[in-house]
Amino acid sequence: MAFGVKKSFFGRLQERIEDVILMRPEIDEDMLDELEEILITSDIGMDTTMKITGKLREDIKHLKIRDPEGVKDQIKKIIRELIDKGEKHKLTEETPLIILMIGVNGGGKTTSIAKIAYKCKNKGKTVLLAAADTFRAAAGEQLEVWGNRIGVNVIKHQEGADPSAVIFDAIQSAKVKKIDVLICDTAGRLQTKKNLMAELEKMNKIIDREYPEAYRETLLVLDAATGKNAVSQVREFGEITDISGIVLTKLDGTAKGGIVITISDEFQMPVKFIGVGEGLDDLKEFEPSEFAEAIFE
Ligand SMILES: Nc1nc2c(ncn2[C@@H]2O[C@H](COP(=O)(O)OP(=O)(O)OP(=O)(O)O)[C@@H](O)[C@H]2O)c(=O)[nH]1
Ligand SMILES: [Mg+2]
């Protein structure tokens, strides 16, 4: 079972595709039209769907695909090529590394930070967390609970403190303690986009100034259950800051895996991790071919 989850990310999508393809004796236009409709209604945007079925039509002609099983394999291949961003799927192994976790509230930032910290620690890296979500009540405490659980220190200020000051302190501490990976939590939602932009800009400035030698990752955390909304979040956050990759959470509770395809295609952005539960082990490194296989599992 791909990614160790029982439930497919694609759920109904895979059933419906199989119904359309495998129930037919031969490939015809009706089948391709139906396929198009299924993709569009499965959180795969119109443009991306057209790209997939357009390519499929060409491939059927050029590769002389005759049987429905061959169509199935070809769809898998087309999707894999769309989502595969090569080496960019991997979180950099270079250190010192500073990871900024961003995304709207409730998406799973804090939980994903704990999971990534746990992964890094298990790889033998030293990790420090910065509670730079000073906006939401008890956000720092929540991170501290995770820190205690995995045995990782947390730098935290008072609620309402300047998040950049937390990052400043965390960087100084990371340098002194020769920390490999510093992961920074950030506030999910400020009153306005302008505030959020200003805050992220300030944090980036502090990091550039105080830690120019550090490698950087900015991970956007998205809740898969929000479907198309997640796609607009990529657009909005992308306008505010450079994003190095996506963490797509809650793929255990939903069959909205289709948005991986849309995001990969529309933004040319790599998905780095997927969240498949609330536990520390429930974060998987994203593997494009495994994911494409899972469509028809
Ligand atoms: N099922 C499931 N639940 C998840 C996953 N990731 C996070 N959650 C849950 O989602 C809820 C919100 O997660 P948080 O990590 O607190 O989200 P956040 O983005 O930090 O939220 P704010 O701090 O309010 O901005 C928690 O109940 C998590 O346990 C996942 O992959 N699967
Ligand atoms: Mg949080």
Quick take:
The chain is α/β, with parallel strands linked by helices and 297 residues long.
Cα distance, first to last residue?
8 Å
CATH topology of the largest domain: Rossmann fold
Strand content: 5-15%
The fourth-level CATH homologous superfamily of the largest domain is P-loop containing nucleotide triphosphate hydrolases
Q: Give the H and E element order.
A: HHHHEHEHEHEHEHEHEEH
| Number of structurally distinct domains | 2
Q: What is the C-level CATH assignment of the largest domain?
A: Alpha Beta
Helix content: 40-55%
Count all strands and give the number: 8
The bound ligands are: guanosine-5'-triphosphate, magnesium ion
Biggest sheet strand line-up: 3-2-4-1-5-6-7-8
Q: What would you call the structural class? A: alpha/beta
Overall shape = elongated
Low-confidence stretches: 1-6
Query: Describe the biggest sheet?
Result: 8 strands, mixed
Describe this entry's structure for a reader.
With 297 residues, this protein is an alpha/beta fold. It is built from 11 helices and 8 strands. An 8-stranded mixed β-sheet has the order 3-2-4-1-5-6-7-8, with helices on both faces. Helix 9 links the parallel strand 5 and strand 6 (245-249). The model is unreliable at 1-6 (pLDDT under 50). Guanosine-5'-triphosphate binds at residues 103, 105-111, 133, 136, 139, 188, 221, 249-250, 252-253, 275-278, 282.
